[in-house]
Amino acid sequence: MTMIRKTRLFTPGPTPLLPAAQFAMAAADIHHRTAEFRALYTRVLKQLKEFVGTKTGDIIVLSSSGTGAMEAAVSNLTSPGDRVLVLTAGKFGERWTALAKAFGCEVDVVSAPYGQTFSLDQVKAALKLETRAVFMQATETSTGVRHCVPAVAKLLKETHSEALLVVDAITGLGTTHLDMDEWGVDVLIGGSQKAVMIPPGLSYLAVGPRAWDRMEATYNPRYYFDLRKERKNARAGESAYTPAVALIAALGAALDYIAGQAATAENPAGDLVEGRKKLVENAETIAAMTRAAVLALGCTLFAPDAPSSAATAVLPPAGVDSGLFVKELKSRFAAIITNGQGEMKGQIFRIAHLGFFDYMDTIALIGALEQVIVKSIPQAGIKFGDGLIAAQKLYAERSQTAAAEAKCLCGRTDACCSLQHSDAK
Ligand SMILES: *Cc1c(COP(=O)(O)O)cnc(C)c1O
Prior knowledge:
The strands form four sheets. A seven-stranded mixed sheet has the order 2-10-9-8-5-3-4, sandwiched between helices. The chain has a four-stranded antiparallel sheet with strand order 11-12-15-14, covered by helices on one side. Strands 1-13 form a two-stranded parallel ribbon. The chain has two domains: 8-13 and 284-416, Aspartate Aminotransferase, domain 1 (Alpha-Beta Complex), CATH 3.90.1150.10; 19-255, Aspartate Aminotransferase, domain 2. Helix 4 (91-102) links the parallel strand 3 and strand 4 (106-111). It is globular. The protein contains 14 helices and 15 strands. The chain is 41% helix and 14% strand.
């Protein structure tokens, strides 16, 4: 049997590209010091602000991958010798520690084992009077875990209001309910190759008033990633240096598409706040379908207590190297998933749900997973349909019930996250 190969990305960055964004890139042959670009940039910054969901923050776009924005947060908000706290449970949390150390900070670390989130008591115990900033992820992509941002924000407000809260929401945005202003997050970071469906190369930050105030006094070295300089330029519709013009055009098209998901007869262009809600709900639904399917297929979840809707990390049946799934899905179905990072390689495989994925993609991937398991892992005793039935049932149930009442401060509608805030209602 020969079949054509149609490559599909199921990776948590880069994610599949939105065709309209690709066309916008191809058409973006404009100079960045022109009225044409200023109109585009001003529009995209305004859209991004609605997408991120802040009224008080300024949006800064950088020509870098997501790590550039993480570095900018550290270099702009700290001075050498500042005490900071990093909350980590995976590879991206560890990046915060490395970055803060690179800029001379005294770094306290709260860590949880891979596959888990930290407890609020651990955070409480690690906060010091001198803690100047707290760095965390909304979702830790390397392990498929979701951290509870609002619980940490609330704790800081109550006990350490001097400490800034910086959240890497690079895979949290568009997959998780986030409310920067209401919760009191000072900096929220996103990246282009994640839920906004465009290629890598842009990062963005929403920076709140307390963070801008902090920058008046900090003196770590910064030049290309000087946020105050970028803000000044952004207010005039430009960026300090040559921006990634084509990616900015693509981002505008992607945000139009996301807004359009909430189009109505009265408002055919839609609405970004409502569109983002739909994007999050979409990720939550296909993540839940995927979890139900892999469990029915004899696999287990790497992060069962606080699973993120950005990506699902899966432990294969006992004794099987996760690389088998990566390899077989690619060679037989041209479906690209990811292995575990670092020491998690061989242990888990990861399937992304962020951005331009839908029901059809999800069902197809589950079908391919069944093919791999039935053929390559017969000892698992799985039959065709086991995963699909679980996913189909879950989808049918979800489409019948209106979004369940949130059980947790962080807006989760499934089991509450393991932080278990007592005042969660
Ligand atoms: C992708 C990602 C990043 C950024 O990585 P880059 O390769 O620099 O874009 C940061 N944090 C998380 C949680 C991510 O998923």
